[in-house]
Amino acid sequence: MIELYTTASPNGFKITIMLEEIQIPYNLNHIKISNGDNKTKDFLKISPHGRIPVIKDTEAEITVFESAAILQYLAEKTGKLLSKNLKTRTQTLQWLMFNSATLAPLLGQRVNYELFEDEKIQLAIQRYQKLSNEAFTTMDKHLATQDYFAGKDYSIADISAFGWMHICQVIDFKFNQHPHLWRWYQQISKRKAVVKGISLPNKAMSA
């Protein structure tokens, strides 16, 4: 059994989607960040920096934090969504890291400066708009020649990217001017596991 600790967020969506895709039993535990659940002693024991998502694999007695690490762990555990072919596997992992090291930080800062800061700092807003659009352009060019980030097959690289691109769509950060990225997003968003995965953290929030 996988115990998942999460809430509705770009990183949280990645793991509920993954768990729905691989179809292994899991239990969703809602971490209410607004109540400080992520800063309790018990939670910090499993997530030292106090961030979601986190999983506990009760069968293997393994705990994993950070969404990219969780995606890779679950793929390794089940043999799904991460190719054993060295070339394809490497491409999957490099785009997984691009999403974690480039896309997510840029969009996180853009969300903060555009939506949450009381004082609108235009230089910061413009900077992160420019940098996030450059990332979209990079993704679009890559997807111009293949269906998914790692080639012809859907993988954890796509799940990782979708978490943040879904939020972009929800909060109206436009990216439909990038035709290949937009095609990819529409294709992924129709998957049964994705539709369910993005609904589960929201249900937990209302619990």
Describe, in plain words, how this protein is organized in 3D.
This protein folds into 2 domains: about 1-80 and about 195-205, Glutaredoxin, CATH 3.40.30; about 85-190, Up-down Bundle (Glutathione S-transferase Yfyf (Class Pi), Chain A, domain 2). The radius of gyration is 17 Å and the shape is globular. It has helices at about 10-20, 40-45, 65-80, 85-115, 120-145, 155-170, 180-190, 190-195, 200-205; strands at about 1-5, 25-30, 55, 60-65. It starts with a strand and ends with a helix. The protein is of the alpha+beta class and about 210 residues long. Helix 1 (about 10-20) packs across helix 6 (about 155-170). The protein contains 9 helices and 4 strands, in the order βαβαββααααααα. Strands 2-1-3-4 form a 4-stranded mixed beta sheet.
Primary descriptors:
single chain, 207 residues, alpha+beta, Glutaredoxin, Glutathione S-transferase Yfyf (Class Pi), Chain A, domain 2, four-stranded mixed β-sheet, 9 helices, 4 strands
- The run of helices and strands is EHEHEEHHHHHHH
SS summary, helix count: 9
Q: What is the CATH first-level class name of the largest domain?
A: Mainly Alpha
- Identify the overall geometry: globular
Compact summary:
The chain has helices at residues 10-22, 41-46, 67-78, 86-116, 122-143, 156-170, 179-189, 192-197, 200-205; strands at residues 2-6, 26-30, 54-57, 62-65. With 207 residues, the chain is an alpha+beta fold. The protein is built from nine helices and four strands.
